[in-house]
Amino acid sequence: MQAPKAKKIAQLLETHGHQRTDNYYWMRDRDNPEVIDYLNAENEYLKSSLKSTEEFQEKLFQEMKGRIKEDDESVPYLKSGYYWYVKYEKGGEYPLYCRKKGNLDAEEEVFLDVNKLAEGKSYYQVGSTAATSDLKTLAFASDTVGRRIYGISFKDFETGEILPDHIPATTGNFAWANDHQTLFYTKQDPETLRSFQVYSHQLGTPTDTDLLIYEEKDEEFSCVVHKTKSEKFILIHSESTISSEIRFMDASNPQGEFQLLQPRIPYLEYAADHYENHFWIRTNHESQNFKLVKAPITSPALECWEDVIPHRESVLLEDFDIFSDFLVTQERSNGLCKINIRPWDGTAEHSLEFDDETYTAWISTNPEFNTPILRFGYNSLVTPASTFDYHMITREKTLLKQQEIIGGYDSTEYTSARIWAQAADGVMIPVSLVYKIDKFTPDGSNPLLLYSYGSYGFSMDAYFSSSRLSLLDRGFVFAIAHIRGGEDLGRVWYEDGKLLRKRNTFSDYIACAEHLISEKYTSAAHLYAMGGSAGGLLMGAVMNMRPDLFNGIIAAVPFVDVVTTMLDESIPLTTGEFQEWGNPKEKEFYEYMLSYSPYDNVEAKDYPHLLITSGLHDSQVQYWEPTKWVAKLREMKTDSKLLFLHTNMEAGHGGASGRFNSLKELALEYTFLLYLEELI
Fold first, then answer.
1. Is 618 a catalytic site residue?
2. CATH of the domain at 156
3. Active-site residue 461, yes or no?
4. List 273, 508, 600, 618, catalytic entry
5. Which of 13, 134, 230, 462 has the most CB atoms within 10 Å of its CB?
6. Per-residue pLDDT at 658
């Protein structure tokens, strides 16, 4: 089958006196039958080209699915006298939400069966769930398209009935007031999908009478509503990339007025929780790596903030949790996660100890104040996801559950390490990697998949994946490049990889790839790159800069048409992204973006083998970005290597819904890599 050839309709785009011609601009209309026909043709071309691998794809899918325990459940947590958990039953794609009253031997109550809710739907995803504090009513959000537009439904715990109240077209974010009748929720702009309004709904009343409580007028800000751990306050949190603003209200007085905690100031970020007579605030006020302060509820503005944990140059404060006798912080030092315990009585603080060289650890679900037990999570490249309870007085650590790998898994057969690559400007970049010991030869002959993200300050921690074993067991090395643009080595790591320093992200990744080759973990003939969303931008940029470094690249839902997207404020998320990428209406940012935008820098040259994925209903990276990119690559590239576009016609940014359906997409991606290595 011949590769699809998209028609060209020249569209002249002019900014700052500079002209660009976009021959595939017409693809932006998902209601145009020609667009759908093209997407279907690309899907058919991929299917036809890889037809010989279909049996292997199914084998790989069953292999990955076979490692997952089908009848599984989360570790229950105690809240309001009930143990709450989520479980899966054999043969079910979707979770069951359950609870037990008083103790774990009590009778199980399944209060939400998502398998039944999803019947007859090609896509179904439950987002947030929350019960009223009297435990009589459940609110839950569901998305049936994959565009992250949720309807909120209500269920009576006592009768099991779905109530007639239904709130359509919300963000899926909500919080109950303490009167058990009032639900605060957020709505998005129907065009840009920016979360910008907070409404209140009274149970039993028509949704068209819901009250608009707050509207975020600044297009660079979005807002969410949530409840403090104490359940005493409802917070409206407005946030841009560089600034925050919180309003608070007594959760027992939902007809009251929201008060400002601290007015927004450029470059001041903060987040708050409540304990006793104070708000506890994580902030970057005069603190690049953030610090913890407290402020009286009666006068919580900046001038009353009192340091609790001062700023530290080498430690990033990521999160905190408050207990009646302890303050717990989640921190990052030298690129690794730390969990620190500070007793309120002033006795010595201490940190949890972890053995792996590269790992991730995090504060888990801890809804109760009056307990010495901390629930935390842990995994590494060789250690499956684990849930622990930690006694903060006796320092006893109890493993409650470790992800079970069906068919067996012996961690001693694999090894992980952290190495450092030198970037173009001399900065050292950490790289985490894992491989199967008896499959690795240090001569550059092993295939290696290098994964990264590098944007928004998201740290890309080393994590375990049972599906990844399908690559490791076939001789692949898997590596994560902790490049700038993430927050892996503190806030400066993020600041050095955004706006007019964004190109550091790409050169860091290239430096990591070159280092892995020089250290004989792989070679250019066996090196593969992978990233998604903003990580897909990374893939497109490094592919244009150094196509010779990679044999193949997988770009998932890639953000590649940077300039055109950032000039169009009607596109979801654009206005909120100006402090991440810059505003191309300013010439300096326009020219800088244009220097790396993958779509704008496609050239007539040889490229690696490419698999590009997309979702027709994607709300974060519009489907037309990868579609246009593929069409332009087909037109321009001078090689005969594989170029595939796979569009999920029924899903969005996160791909297929359901527990196992997503594995079919992963099986396709892994098959692509193994096909190129002739390991099928």
1. yes
2. 2.130.10.120
3. no
4. 618
5. 462
6. 67
